Amino acid sequence: MNKLDYLRENLEMCDEIILDALTMRYRMIEDITAYKRKKDLPIVQPEEEEKKRRLLLSRMTDHRHTDNVMDVFDSIILNSKKIQSQQIFDYNIVLIGFMGSGKSTISRALSKVFAMDVIEMDQVIADREGMSISEIFEVHGEEYFRNLETELLREMQNRKGVVISCGGGVPMRDENVVEMKKNGKVILLTAAPETILERVRNNHDRPLLENNKNVDFISELMEKRRSKYEAAADIIIQTDGKSEFEICEEIISHAKKQ
Ligand code: S3P
User: Fold this and answer.
1) Contact 79, 131 (CB under 8 A)
2) How many CB atoms sit inside 10 A of residue 119's CB?
3) Who has the most CB within 10 Å: 2, 117, 137, 251?
4) Using a 6 Å cutoff on CB, does residue 167 contact ligand 1?
């Protein structure tokens, strides 16, 4: 056998080892997730990830390829998260709630913890229209914006296992709620008007609140919307005083019961 053939054969052996190790790893991930769910243990343990990175770095003997190796591990971990989320959520997570109730924050947290894709409806609409939400309201009017929301929600029904962060007004249309429920669990995030005010105070892309940043206005609009929000929701989560991870765990704990 010439040298090149010999080296290639060894490389093939390496790949087989990696393949077997990955197959075993992803099976372990499924077993760990199943065990945690059975025993009601927290699924979200962000500190574990950092611990693992440190351990891997300390185990590395050949430091010429540290960055490449860690890059591969990041990808392995990302895919482990995907496997975990597919195991827990075989539907879309649709987050609804008043402006400032935490939909975008929780979407980002879910995407970090589970590597789930996030559809931030306002962002997608603004990108497609090439203007901010405030500009869309100003140039085309609210009805035009609401129609774009309905269209986008319809489109999203082709996706699975994604987090859809709805604009605050989306559940006001019954047809939107029908769309959400087709393959999604609808989670309503709530917060006290005072908390909402604090969260939206420095934002200037919410045309409905721009000149109405006070508790009275927020309470009144919330009250007007409450029955539609609650009717749309499969799960209601109150967010005041809770961390992102606590809210993610609550979402997961409801998923367990399905
Ligand atoms: C709206 C909420 C906003 C945005 C638009 C209208 C509403 O989204 O869609 O300003 O009617 O409640 P957020 O809830 O993400 O702020």
Assistant:
1) no
2) 19
3) 251
4) yes
